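worker-3 :: picked DUF4265 domain-containing protein
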Amino acid sequence: MDRHLRHPSRPARWGGAGLVPVQSSSAAEVEVWTGWIEDEAEIWEALIAIPIERGDAVQLRSVPVYAYGLNYGDAVECVASAEGPLVISHVTSVGGQATFRIWLGSDADPSAWRRIAEAYAKRGCIIDMSTMSLIALSCAAEDAEPIRHLLNEDATRTASPGSRHTDGLTSQRHDSPLQGRHVQPPSGATRHRARAGDNVGKVRANSMDDARPNAAEVRSKRGPEAALAIVIGGVLALAFGWSALGLVRDTLHFNCSWGIGGEWGPDGTWVCADGIGYLGVAVVLGGMSALIIVAGLLVATAAPSRGRSVVFLVLAAIPIGWIGWWTYYAATLYSGPRPAGETGLGLWASTVLPSIILCTVSLIVGAARPLMMRRWSFVALWCGVGLLLIATVLQLGIGIATFVSAGMLAAAGVGRAPAR
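worker-3 :: tokens ->
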């Protein structure tokens, strides 16, 4: 059966006369979960965290009691589970803390936990209570060896016969900071469910049964939504690809000649190549879009992260740059006579450039979601996608590229959890 564990109290430190709860410097606290598989059951531990300025990372403000490989003060990135809670995906930077767990035994003296907690709090450690028998300590990494030595001495001198302090990932006495790894505790490690009511400082009243993330659903956030956005963009680009041929032939007069008088008529006219003469255009524009779609689908197989989002943004920008440059080339290639007052550059600037500028603005607006990951950035993302669609409507001939860009922009913003 799955287990969902919340800390019954806030972490505490020594306040001069006793233990006092550690107060966050940010009012925007969030609850994040870390999970693992143990004995064919999913185990989840909830931790307090606060948003920090580095992108969408949050900083842990709880001492992990059950999860290994995480420490108080670590900066972590999260993804959103299907039900909404944030789940830690990996550590982005370590906080310089080491974690110890003290197990006092199932028949421990009810007053023993306070004596031990205060003793180590006076040495600068942060205390996080799980039960009267299980205490988590967070100490500065440089003090890890002295604290471990003291714990070894206390285990034989002051604790009850069954007491000990638990180890970290292997036989160490504290958790080593592991950067960039998913949390996976050792198989079969002893775990203890937190009991509400045993507390140090302010008791957290949250239920242990609400907002339970599901590991399978969290894993499903790895790519389907991004891939779906890319596929939809590709289908729309294919459906409206014919408009690109109309743009380069009928509007920009690529592969055309202009004349006046005689067989050209008194007002002049453009004569263009037949359809076969534009197969190269279809290959150049359609081929680029196809390559970008394939690249995007490959990127979508990676776990959601800032790096993946940046790649999607680059892939979104390439089709816009490509269609902008290629239509400019098509409009200015012809050097023969033109109607009075018309130039290739002027024709391109009046028919294509406004949409290209709007597409560029849309990328800048939409990039707020994957790069900043604030809650309001969700609106910015879809405003960016909407501006891309508006730019395409203004000049449907660029849709073979801009629909692909819209799919990449949407893919850049899905699957990642907002930090604030």
